[in-house]
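Section 5.1 Outputs to date
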Amino acid sequence: MEELLWEWVTASKIVESGPCFLVGADLSPSANGADATIYDGLDATGRRIDTLVASTKTNQPLLLPGRILCHSGIYIAIGSNVTGVLVLWQKIAGKGGP
């Protein structure tokens, strides 16, 4: 099994380019009304996986019973009132970006 990777994302960006597995995410809000969207893709035109929303100043996790296959990569779009999003993923053996 591939190593579990993580990144603290504070601005919209490509987290992984190429096929990978999304393992989980955790939205940390700076104020009420925080939001961040996770895409299977390299920008916000990719396939939307989920939008994390925190209506109170409490973290909002994305809890998965397994892994989600992302065919193109993982892109995180940071909305408003977000301190950051912790993203957990795994590369697919022999594939993936840098």
